[in-house]
Amino acid sequence: MRSTAFPIGYRYPALITFVTILILTLSTPQHAFAIRTFGSGYCWTSEGAWASNTIQFRIDGSVPSSMYTAIRTSAQTWTNIGASSVTFSEQSSTNYVAYGLVDARYAAITYPGTYGQNPLTQVHTTLNSYFLWSTGGPSGAFDVQNITTHEFGHWLFLDDKNDSACSDETMYWSIPAGSTTSPIETKKRTLELPDINGAAYQYP
Ligand SMILES: [Zn+2]
Predict the structure, then answer these.
(1) 25 C-alpha to ligand 1 centroid (Å)
(2) Which domain holds residue 151?
(3) 107 CA to centre of ligand 1 in angstroms
(4) For all residues of the chain together, what is the average pLDDT?
(5) Is the pLDDT of residue 36 over 90?
(6) pLDDT higher for 152 or 48?
(7) If you measure from the C-alpha of residue 132 to the centroid of ligand 1, how many angstroms do you get, rounded to a whole number?
(8) Which residues contact 37 (CB under 8 A, 6 or more apart)?
(9) Which of 1, 46, 194, 203 is the S-S candidate for 86 at Cβ 3.0 to 4.6 Å?
C-alpha cells in the first residue's frame, strides 16, 4: 500500500473566480512589486499570489522538533531563487506548518485560510501523521524536506503538475512512499527550472 503514489497538496480550485479582488489590491501602494496571477509555462501553472513577496510562516507546536530543520530548509530553498524576490520569513504568524491526522489519501495537505481568496492572506500545511516520516535516514515513508518543499510551492500558488513530462519537478503532483525495497524520494527537495520559472513569474 505504501508503495502507491500519493497525491500531495491541494490545488486551490476556487481561486479562478477572484480576479476582481486582485485588481483592487494592485492599487494599494505598499504592494509595489508586481502581483501576477494565472501564469503558466512548461511544467508550471500558477493561480494567484500574495500581496507581498515576503511570506511569513511558523512551525506549529504539533510538529516534532526533529522535522524543524527540514521544514526551514524547504522554505529557504524557495527564498534562495535568484530570479525571484519571494522570501519565506519564520516568525509569529497565522501561516503555519502542522503535523496531524488528515485524509489518508494525502501525505500532506495545504489549506488556504479562505477558499477563493486571491491574494492569499492565510495558509497552512498539515503533514499527515498517518504516515511514517523521515528526515534523510534510510527508512521512512516520506521525506519531510521533499514534501514541505512541494507544499511551500503551493503557498506560492503554484499548482500541482499531473503530467508525466514534469515528473522531476518539485511541483509534480505525487510522490512514491519509501519502503524497505524502494528508496525514499528526495528529488523534490531541489527545484527544477519550471519550479523556478513559476516562482519568478509570480514574484519577479
Ligand atoms: Zn501538491
Answers:
(1) 26
(2) 5-163+171-202
(3) 10
(4) 82
(5) no
(6) 152
(7) 18
(8) 19, 22, 46, 47, 48, 49, 118, 157
(9) 203
Return the pLDDT at 117: 77
Q: State the pTM of this model.
A: 0.83
Give Cβ neighbours of residue 16 (< 8 Å, ≥ 6 apart): 38, 47
Cβ count within 10 A of residue 29: 5
Residue 143 Cα to ligand 1 midpoint, Å, equals 15
CATH of the domain at 78: 3.40.390.10
50 CA to centre of ligand 1 in angstroms: 18
Q: What is the mean pLDDT of residues 35-50?
A: 86
Report CA torsion sign: 82, 160, 113, 14. positive
Distance (angstroms) between ligand 1 centre and the Cα of 177 equals 15
- CA 29 to centroid of ligand 1, rounded, Å: 32
Indicate the number of domains in the chain: 1
